[in-house]
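Friendly challenge for the regulars: who can give me the structure tokens for this chain first? No prize, just bragging rights.
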Amino acid sequence: MTWGETTVTLTIAKPRLVFFRSVMALMLREMSTTYGRSPGGYVWAFAEPIAGVALMAIIFGLITHNPALGTNFPLYFASGIMPFLIYQTTAANVGTAISYSRPLLAYPRVSYVDAIVARFLLNALTQILIASIIIIGIVLFYDLSLDIDFFLCARAVAMALALGIGVGILNCYLMSMFSVWRF
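First reply, four minutes later:
Bragging rights claimed.
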């Protein structure tokens, strides 16, 4: 290279793991906006199912002495409410993924799939953690001895998540096509 000549070499590096980086960035944004706005963000995520299980156990405990299956009302209701909440929150959060992340979809590296996967993963991990802590807490608090088939439990949670993401993606599509579907 001589004086006065400039050589510019432009190399475009291939983006590696763009999908995973986008999903992680969207998950961090979702965590900070959904649960990080108030000091009790994640506390509310735990308080709502705990209050539901406790209220149902107290009400039905006053009416009858034993649940339909087993001997412990809190475990009976938690084992029914938690899988339903896993499905319900997954469907609701995935259904609003596109409208929630609409401003970020203007960036070329962020796609619709990134937004849906990020909302799904964050919701799935949060709900599985909440359900596990609540059920383990009930088992430890009441000193229950259970024979648990973890494979069947994992399959049930996977089925609830699969149903939730299926309904959520359908709702997400219908909300983006028909504005009346939101109501």
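The CA atoms of residues 62 and 178 lie 47 Å apart. The chain has a mean pLDDT of 87. Your move, everyone else.
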